[in-house]
Amino acid sequence: MTILYLLIPLSLILLGLAVWAFFWAVKNDQFDDLEGPAHRILFDEDDNDLSPEQRRQRQQTKQKSAASSDTDTPDDPEPRL
User: Is the sign of the CA dihedral 58, 61, 62, 63 positive or negative?
Assistant: First the structure.
């Protein structure tokens, strides 16, 4: 019976550590993207190595260059390949 005086506080301390570790993981975005790393190995592009801000900048640059190339060329009745 006296062992309970040791086990109950010890279990409460371990429970507190587990709760703290869970909230720390949530706060540090450990659970944001569960499928991304698994799919990342399937793609050959280096976009996955960039930060989200760098990805947005790269996409905006691609969109601007595509928009400027579309305005420079005449409209073709045939689709481009």
Answer: positive
